[in-house]
Design a protein that fits this description.
By secondary structure, this protein is of the alpha+beta class. Helices cover 21% and strands 25% of the residues. It has 2 helices and 6 strands, in the order ββαβαβββ. A 4-stranded mixed sheet has the order 4-3-5-6, covered by helices on one side. It is globular, with a radius of gyration of 18 Å. The relative contact order is 0.20.
Amino acid sequence: VYASEPHSYKELPLRMGEIGLVHRHELSGTLHGLFRVRCFNQDDAHIFMTQEQMLDVIQETVRLFDEFYSIFGLSYTIELSTMPEDHIGTVEEWEKNQEILKQAITGMGKEFIINEGDGAFYGPKLDLHLAVRHHPAGQPATGALPAGIHRRGRPEAPACHDSPGSTGLY
């Protein structure tokens, strides 16, 4: 979607979202109750930004979750999932993005726990787990920072036709 038309660095951060229908056909017995569904709607959002914008955008996004969850009196814990064995991107890219996520969360005065090796194959992620009484914690929100995915078709700064030498998009 991003590459379908020229963009200016002045548009960044650029936020895009969609609600899509997901189909699943799990084997009988693998799930139970309401979890065993054939299809469901899932929202998905992408924020195209420069590396320099990451810290602010991550904090903005977490503040949005704070605002929304507080309306319903919900609390949550934050989990930082790090590089799995099967991943793309360099170790340096992963470490840099993990550090940005840590700085964003601690800079807001929040705590997190490390979930070693449970990141997405393309980057470290923050999982927000709801604290729900008498039920396993739900996980309604996840945010990931891609590491090296730009080498797999993600846009780079030159896609921003008037970019003044930015280091790339994430």
